């Protein structure tokens, strides 16, 4: 909700605080950048000092940052508060996944992660609508106050969670942590600022090249460390790495639509914001109801590998089908492709994280959850920024100026002939959708192939319940 709903409050924030442009956008960017950069560090810290402890600290930090955002007197204070909330979100996300992975086993673990997937679906589906109601009825500050209230409620339940940590507790790799945060922060910042500063400008190129160089140095450093921040044997497991790539493909096939489709529906399609939000429920609604179904199928013997492959193929099919969209398209025309994409997201949300955590030993649960979610959040920040730049470039091939192209891609079609500009936006969206479909199809094949392995039955310790999804994976199903 903090990601999908906060954007709705931006116009009200700009009016109330007398700001616009980059400072206003950093209400979103500060949260996303810090969230993505600190996930791995938060996960490793959870393994070392205690997963419940990091969950509590993260939830408290998130609540404090959200409360500070609700009370912020100016835009700078608001941006800083959102960065604090992002750091807390990293602690909650990384330790939360590790807690579920080490608390539950077998079918119970699958159900637990399916429930978490449904919660994510609820945030995606209800976040913008609920935030819109709050902004309209109580003002933008109420949205951040609600975030704080929810996390305070979560803190009240933390006492029922058992503490767990890795049996061996080496010192934190401080150098590796600083290098990784700096590398990912540079890459995300470069991607986020690329559209504003120019992709070929020295600042953006410096950030992107510097981020890549730091990542290469980080990997070399980790290979020589006795107690690394990221154990490279984890990412050398092709099944785990394949499952970490699923959120990346999901960003292409699903999250980009979640971000940019409303802009098209309002700008080129002429819909009201409320009607566009209703249409978007066709995309987000399945994410709310499908995860438990996916979890139930997995526990009843349906191949998790097959379900993951199917989810990514649904992205490819839905994105390709959505090229039927035109200005004035009715919701009935859009229902089929949007429901397909939403079903794909719901399937992956329901089983992917639990499956990934089931093939990692408990001692590295926090590290694994941190890396998995780093791939998720990092890819969202980078892919969304790049997709926006591609959309502007494609619109620019049919309009006279880059500035006008940027306005059209942002949904402002008031700078010329509306019919002509809508046609340019439609052309750009169609080409982009074919690209998303291609990436999703290639990702589906690659992930499905990587999840296969020689038939070798995984044996649980005597008296222990079998981890059904992990056994299915071990059998190549």
What does this structure look like?
With 477 residues, the chain is mostly helical. The protein has two domains: 6-160 and 229-474, Growth Hormone, Chain: A (Up-down Bundle); 173-228. It is 78% helix and 0% strand. The protein contains 17 helices and no strands. The chain has helices spanning 10-17, 21-49, 51-70, 75-103, 106-138, 141-157, 174-197, 202-224, 232-236, 238-267, 273-299, 304-321, 331-358, 365-396, 402-409, 418-450, 468-474. The protein is globular and about 65 Å long. Belongs to the major facilitator superfamily. TCR/Tet family. InterPro entries: MFS, MFS_dom, MFS_trans_sf, Sugar_transporter_CS, Tet-R_TetA/multi-R_MdtG-like. This is MFS transporter.
């Amino acid at each position: 909700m903090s990601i999908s709903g906060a954007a709705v409050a931006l116009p009200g924030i700009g009016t109330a605080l007398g700001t616009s442009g980059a400072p206003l956008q950093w209400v979103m960017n500060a949260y996303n950048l810090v969230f993505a950069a600190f996930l791995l560090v938060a996960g490793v810290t959870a393994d070392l000092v205690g997963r419940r402890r990091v969950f509590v600290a993260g939830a408290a930090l998130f609540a404090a940052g959200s409360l500070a955002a609700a009370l912020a007197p100016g835009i700078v204070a608001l941006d800083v508060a959102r960065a604090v909330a992002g750091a807390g979100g990293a602690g909650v996300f990384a330790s939360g996944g590790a807690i579920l992975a080490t608390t539950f086993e077998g079918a119970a673990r699958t159900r637990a992660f399916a429930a978490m997937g449904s919660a994510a679906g609820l945030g995606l589906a209800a976040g913008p609508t609920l935030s819109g109601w709050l902004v309209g009825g109580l003002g933008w500050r109420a949205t951040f106050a609600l975030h704080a209230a929810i996390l305070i409620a979560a803190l009240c339940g933390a006492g029922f969670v058992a503490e767990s940590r890795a049996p061996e507790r080496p010192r934190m790799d401080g150098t590796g942590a600083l290098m990784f945060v700096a590398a990912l922060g540079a890459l995300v910042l470069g991607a986020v600022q690329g559209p504003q500063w120019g992709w070929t400008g020295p600042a953006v190129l410096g950030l992107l090249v510097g981020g890549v160089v730091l990542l290469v140095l980080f990997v070399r450093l980790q290979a020589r460390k006795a107690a690394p921040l990221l154990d490279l044997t984890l990412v050398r497991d092709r099944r785990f790495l394949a499952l970490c790539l699923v959120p990346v493909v999901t960003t292409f096939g699903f999250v980009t639509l979640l971000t940019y489709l409303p802009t098209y529906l309002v700008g080129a399609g002429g819909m009201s914001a409320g009607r566009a939000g209703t249409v978007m429920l066709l995309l987000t609604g399945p994410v709310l109801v499908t995860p438990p179904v996916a979890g139930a199928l997995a526990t009843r013997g349906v191949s998790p590998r097959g379900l993951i492959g199917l989810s990514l193929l649904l992205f490819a099919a839905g994105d390709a089908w959505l090229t039927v969209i035109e200005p004035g398209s009715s919701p009935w025309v859009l229902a089929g492709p949007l429901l397909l994409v939403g079903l794909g997201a719901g399937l992956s949300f329901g089983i992917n994280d639990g499956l990934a955590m089931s093939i990692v030993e408990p001692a590295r649960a926090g590290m694994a959850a941190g890396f998995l979610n780093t791939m998720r959040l990092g890819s969202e920040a980078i892919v969304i920024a790049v997709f926006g730049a591609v959309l502007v470039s494609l619109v620019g091939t049919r309009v006279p100026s880059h500035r006008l192209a940027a306005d059209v891609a942002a949904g402002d079609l008031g700078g010329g002939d509306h019919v002509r500009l809508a046609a340019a936006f439609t052309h750009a969206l169609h080409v982009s959708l074919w690209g998303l479909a291609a990436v999703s199809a290639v990702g589906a094949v690659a992930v499905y192939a990587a999840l296969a392995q020689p038939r070798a039955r995984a044996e649980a310790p005597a008296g222990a319940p079998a981890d059904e999804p992990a056994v299915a994976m071990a059998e190549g199903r």
